[in-house]
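User: What would this chain look like folded?
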Amino acid sequence: MNENSPRILVVDDEETICAAIKALLTYKNYTVFTAPDSKTALDIIKERRPHLLLLDICLEKESGIDLLKTVRGFNNEIGVIMFSASMPDSIMEQAFAELKVKRFVPKPVNIPDLLEIIKEGFNG
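Assistant: Here's the prediction, encoded as structure tokens.
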């Protein structure tokens, strides 16, 4: 792990998605952590202080929106990109307006688009 590389936390209850995104981003010289649930994600955010959060909206036992509300209670600096197979407009509006979500990425994730959005997340 390169201490100077940008740190990204991927939160998704689908292990294969976490593993694939981690492999890709590690190859692109990011430091990547993964979490299958809110508790693990919160521990990593507090201990590892990632710069960017890639967050699935629909986790198995909880909502990614609820997790993000908790995170925003103690960290307003972390960048957030949310992804999901579908997102109701009302949730999207709340995520952008109240929770400072930078972007929404639909599933299945287009890898070149995701890489570009992540770059934007560190530059804007």
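Residues 8 and 52 are 5 Å apart (CA to CA). If you want, I can go into more detail on any region.
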